[in-house]
Amino acid sequence: MKKDRNASTLSAVAVIPAAGKGHRMGGRDYKQFLEINGKPILTLTLEKFQACPSIQAIIVIVPSHQVETCQRKVITPYSIKKVQKVLAGGERRQDSVRLGIESSGGKYDLVVIHDGVRPFVAPQLVENMVSLAKEHRALTAGIPAKDTIKEVGEDGLVRRTHNREGLWMVQTPQVFHYQDILEAHHEALRKEWGDVTDDAQMVERMGIPVKVIEGSEMNIKVTTPGDLALARYLLKAPEGSEGRI
């Protein structure tokens, strides 16, 4: 029997999409399998969710021909026991996430969606957001925009300068109640919402309010060679320094 939204404890499954090719990284290797200090980026991400008491299970989505490789090189050697399934991804990120949600079978109250290439997510952030899901139907991590935001046309000319007050740069994790996010993804599929850029945007279109929780500037998404260099620096930073993750 499903628990109600206000129950004292809500069960949670983490869905980790990592099926992208990562063209911006360059080279032939998939970015999620690149190593930082001897560990694949995806392993570092999964270890954070392994360490979260609120997460009962993990579902990982990878490129279709990398399912066995992921299990053998990313999960098994590092004893990430919470991973219950490694699935072949879909054509788009939203297809991969939908497959992960559907495969959970409604066994968990909450779905926590997190990019496989954000390896520096703080487990405490995940715990806080899962706890807040007792009060909110949908949550996303984010940080306030610090830089001036300009809207630029295809010709390279500025169309508009936005007031950055109230603007946030959205991150993951994002936390949803299972039925809400499942219905949102099915609606996106039916109505061919090809313009959505994250899962929170889908539930917004369903009329569900999304609570923003302040994340961290260190919760970077590793998508370019510069990001990879920064990630390697952050992991090597000495204990107690400002750059230490």
How would you sum up this structure, described in words?
The chain is α/β, with parallel strands linked by helices and 245 residues long. It has one domain: Spore Coat Polysaccharide Biosynthesis Protein SpsA, Chain A. 29% of the residues lie in helices and 24% in strands. It is built from 7 helices and 11 strands. α3 (93-103) crosses α5 and α5 (178-190) crosses α6 (199-205). The longest helix has 13 residues, at 178-190. The protein is globular. The N and C termini lie far apart (39 Å). The model has no long low-confidence stretch (mean pLDDT 91).
Poorly predicted runs are: none
**Element-level helix/strand string:** EEEHEHEHEHEEEEHHEH
CATH superfamily membership: Spore Coat Polysaccharide Biosynthesis Protein SpsA, Chain A
How much strand?
A: 15-25%
Q: Rg, please?
A: 18 Å
What does the main sheet amount to?
7 strands, mixed
User: How far is the first residue's CA from the last residue's CA?
Assistant: 39 Å
Structural class: alpha/beta
Taken together, the total number of domains comes to: 1
Q: What number is the mean pLDDT?
A: 91
**So what's the CATH class?**
Alpha Beta
Summarize this structure as a short list of keywords or feature phrases.
245 residues; alpha/beta; Spore Coat Polysaccharide Biosynthesis Protein SpsA, Chain A; 7-stranded mixed β-sheet; two-stranded antiparallel sheet; 7 helices; globular
